[in-house]
């Protein structure tokens, strides 16, 4: 049903023996000569039809003439498509047995793959044919003289790790094939970026970052490498259709972007990938459309007609759209009028489809469970005239904490999306006077960092970080501030802690009021109990509250002081006094 042919160089009656291999499947036919792929084709009809004619060796099928004139040393037939490792092992066996050119080894595996990581990585290597792995981390191609990988290699900075595998029975370095070094060298480009530590990694299947590219401004982009570690790289081989690199976008805090044009229609293709064939998904993009009144894809995974797949796209200059399609049953949701740059997120959990725009839920609808059996390439920027800074795809509908993590990361990086203000930290104690040391706990919103001071100054992001309860055994003012990536800092919370060992006669008089509220030892017009409550000395007429308009009220054996202003003080029978703002 298809024909795969190639002229074998030097294939005359006087030529050397050749090792020829044909690997055939319903999807692809490949022809190898001496271990090198020389031709391949896609069958015109999928599937095999087996006749009843006997197999023939050395004679054309059907028995009609043109017999083979030459020598055959060995024939092997397998009832399956060999893996790459199986094929090169057989190539090696034949080459050694018959003194034919040794095959090239396959690339070893480097773990982790190319990607962005928040912390230092220990790189390890896995051989494909059991050979010795030689590696380099200095940017130079590895050779047989490079270090041999025997254990993990710690990578703490941006590093390109390269590796080759050498083994007896396979071509040795240097290779005679000029393209062999590149074909047989495994490469992993590792970026260490601590600013990504809050970004969820579970289920991340595609991550394209413009700032992972190292190119001059306006340079064409042939390859946009996936930073998720899944090797879903975006490619464009036609130079006239290659998007351009923009080194700095002022509206995105001077971060890079990728520029797409619709004339010519620049775009990328991500070859079909099982890791992007998703039933549930979250698709996220930071982008800006420059012109166009027609439908344009930011990222689309599905067949060209849009009958199956998922995508984020723009209908025109003012409408972002998330689409989930299956068997022609479209579920389309839109939000109007995004700003110049927008952070769009399409989320689908099998029952509900949502579109989030700049951190806010813009639209939601019920959508019955979609089973996607498509197997198509993904495209990026098709018909899109604008800039894309970052794209992420997850294999599930992000939970709320995960969604906030993505939003916080992208806001902190690009400044897109509304910023939420954190709630002020709370204290386990109220402001007031205490007779004994106290333990103070400070709490704030989840994932926040609390900074505090005890000298009365306002805390900042460089002040001490709260981690364990504070022990208060002296008069002090504690102030606390909550900060979190992607949020505005909270307002400062304040606790005024007064520590006093002075005693006041709390035994009740005939009217039930503690004696301390009836006596004024220093004659300054302020009752002793009130002075102790406010941290002044009832024995010193020069030490008195700033406001002398304090009054006392009794509520169920608790006595409340008020300064007719914005705070009230509660004084209990044990002599502890706490304060709080008036309602």
What does this structure look like?
With 583 residues, this protein is mainly β. It contains four helices and 41 strands. The chain has a nine-stranded mixed β-sheet with strand order 33-32-35-37-29-41-40-39-38. Strands 11, 14, 15, 17, 22, 23, 24 and 26 form an eight-stranded antiparallel β-sheet that branches. A six-stranded antiparallel β-sheet has the order 16-25-18-19-20-21, with no helix packed on it. The termini are far apart.
Fold blueprint:
Elements: E1 20-24, E2 29-33, E3 36-41, H1 84-98, E4 109-111, E5 115-117, E6 121-126, E7 132-136, E8 153-155, E9 159-166, H2 180-184, E10 186-192, E11 204-209, E12 223-224, E13 234-235, E14 244-249, E15 255-260, E16 268-270, E17 281-291, E18 296-302, E19 309-314, E20 319-326, E21 329-336, E22 342-348, E23 352-357, E24 360-366, E25 378-380, E26 385-394, H3 400-414, E27 420-421, E28 426-427, E29 431-434, E30 438-440, E31 442-443, E32 449-453, E33 464-465, E34 470-472, E35 476-483, E36 487-488, E37 493-499, H4 528-533, E38 551-555, E39 558-562, E40 567-571, E41 577-581
Parallel strand pairs: 5-10, 27-36, 29-37
Antiparallel strand pairs: 1-2, 2-3, 4-6, 6-8, 7-9, 9-10, 11-26, 12-13, 14-15, 15-26, 16-25, 17-22, 17-26, 18-19, 18-25, 19-20, 20-21, 22-23, 23-24, 28-31, 29-41, 30-34, 32-33, 32-35, 35-37, 38-39, 39-40, 40-41
């Amino acid at each position: 049903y298809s024909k795969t042919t190639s002229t074998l160089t030097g294939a005359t009656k006087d030529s050397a023996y050749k090792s020829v291999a044909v690997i055939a499947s319903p999807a692809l036919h490949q022809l190898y000569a001496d271990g090198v792929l020389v031709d391949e084709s896609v069958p015109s009809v999928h599937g095999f039809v087996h006749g009843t004619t006997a197999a023939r060796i050395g004679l054309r099928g059907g028995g009609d003439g043109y017999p083979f004139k030459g020598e055959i040393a060995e024939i092997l037939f397998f009832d399956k498509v060999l893996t790459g490792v199986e094929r090169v092992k057989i190539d090696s066996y034949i080459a050694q047995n018959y003194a034919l050119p040794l095959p090239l080894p396959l690339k070893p595996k480097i773990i982790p793959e190319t990607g962005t990581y928040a912390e230092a990585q220990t790189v390890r290597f896995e051989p494909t044919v059991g050979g010795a792995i030689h590696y380099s981390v200095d940017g130079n191609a590895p050779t047989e003289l490079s270090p041999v990988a025997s254990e993990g290699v710690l990578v703490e900075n941006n590093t390109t790790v390269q590796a080759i595998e050498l083994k007896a029975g396979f071509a040795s370095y240097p290779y005679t094939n000029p393209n062999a070094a590149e074909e047989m060298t495994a490469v992993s480009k590792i970026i260490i970026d601590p600013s990504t530590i809050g970004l969820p990694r579970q289920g991340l299947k595609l991550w394209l970052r413009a700032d992972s590219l190292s190119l001059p401004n306006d340079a064409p982009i042939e390859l946009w490498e996936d930073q998720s570690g899944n090797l879903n790289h975006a490619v464009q081989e036609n130079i006239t259709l290659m998007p351009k690199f923009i080194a700095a976008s002022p509206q995105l805090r001077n971060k890079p972007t990728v520029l797409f044009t619709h004339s010519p229609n620049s775009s990328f293709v991500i070859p079909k990938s099982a890791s992007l064939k998703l039933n549930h998904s979250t698709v996220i993009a930071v982008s800006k459309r420059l012109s166009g009144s027609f439908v344009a894809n930011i990222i689309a995974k599905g067949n060209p007609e849009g009958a199956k797949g998922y995508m984020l796209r723009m209908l025109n200059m003012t409408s972002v759209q998330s689409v989930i399609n299956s068997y022609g049953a479209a579920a389309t949701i839109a939000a109007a009028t995004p700003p110049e740059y927008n952070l769009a997120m399409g989320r689908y959990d099998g029952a509900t489809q949502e579109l989030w725009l700049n951190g806010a839920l813009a639209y939601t609808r019920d959508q019955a469970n979609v089973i996607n059996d498509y197997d198509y390439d993904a495209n990026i920027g098709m018909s899109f005239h604008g800039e894309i800074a970052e794209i992420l795809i997850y294999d599930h509908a992000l939970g709320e904490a995960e969604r906030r993590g993505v939003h916080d990361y992208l806001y902190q990086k690009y400044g897109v999306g509304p910023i939420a203000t954190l709630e002020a930290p709370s204290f386990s104690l109220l402001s007031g006077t205490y007779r004994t040391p106290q333990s103070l706990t400070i709490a704030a919103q989840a994932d926040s960092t609390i900074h505090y001071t005890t000298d009365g100054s306002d805390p900042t992001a460089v002040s001490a970080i709260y981690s364990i309860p504070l022990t208060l055994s002296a008069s002090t003012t504690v102030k606390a501030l909550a900060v979190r990536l992607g949020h505005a800092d909270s307002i400062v919370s304040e606790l005024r802690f007064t520590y006093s060992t002075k005693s006041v006669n709390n035994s009740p008089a005939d009217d039930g009021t503690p004696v301390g509220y009836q006596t004024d030892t220093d004659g300054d017009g302020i009752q002793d109990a009130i002075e102790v409550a406010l941290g002044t000395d009832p024995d010193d007429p020069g030490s008195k509250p700033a406001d002398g308009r304090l009054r006392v009220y009794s509520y169920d054996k608790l006595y409340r002081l008020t300064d007719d202003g914005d705070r009230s003080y509660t004084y209990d029978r044990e002599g502890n006094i706490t304060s709080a703002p008036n309602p």
